[in-house]
Amino acid sequence: MKKYLSLLLFLVLVLGGGLLIGYATLPGAWYASLVKPPFNPPNWVFGPVWSLLYVLIAVAGWRTWLREPSGAAMKIWGVQLILNFLWSPTFFGAKMMGPALVVIVLLLASIVSFIASVWNRDRISGWLFAPYAAWVAFATMLNASLLWLN
């Protein structure tokens, strides 16, 4: 029971935090006015994708916490979550695409680092982060393109 309560707490922290930050920093008119690259997805794609990714991030964090709550992998997981939660306020809130690009590059590096740190002990957690890594790599390219075009 205690094990599943901790999973619920991870889901609330990650999914709840991500959704709260997402709603607090909705793209709005500024983002709509930007020149976008041809591969820019429609706005409606972001909510469902991030919701699914947040669930995967939470489960990977929970699995890592169960195995080694104070270990290096858990610390890396915490860093990636902070960077993840920092990107939207930097990009959409402060409208600072350059600093947001720095944040997302660091985020991508921390995601890859997390995967590498858990791969030999918990391949499931590593695989849970694979779609996240792919999406953030795409988002990094999108952020860089938006900065370049605007």
TrEMBL record:
<dbReference type="InterPro" id="IPR038330">
    <property type="entry name" value="TspO/MBR-related_sf"/>
</dbReference>
<feature type="transmembrane region" description="Helical">
    <location>
        <begin position="126"/>
        <end position="149"/>
    </location>
</feature>
<feature type="transmembrane region" description="Helical">
    <location>
        <begin position="74"/>
        <end position="94"/>
    </location>
</feature>
<keyword id="KW-1133">Transmembrane helix</keyword>
<keyword id="KW-0812">Transmembrane</keyword>
<feature type="transmembrane region" description="Helical">
    <location>
        <begin position="44"/>
        <end position="62"/>
    </location>
</feature>
<protein>
    <submittedName>
        <fullName>TspO/MBR family protein</fullName>
    </submittedName>
</protein>
<comment type="similarity">
    <text>Belongs to the TspO/BZRP family.</text>
</comment>
<keyword id="KW-0472">Membrane</keyword>
<dbReference type="Pfam" id="PF03073">
    <property type="entry name" value="TspO_MBR"/>
</dbReference>
<feature type="transmembrane region" description="Helical">
    <location>
        <begin position="100"/>
        <end position="119"/>
    </location>
</feature>
<dbReference type="InterPro" id="IPR004307">
    <property type="entry name" value="TspO_MBR"/>
</dbReference>
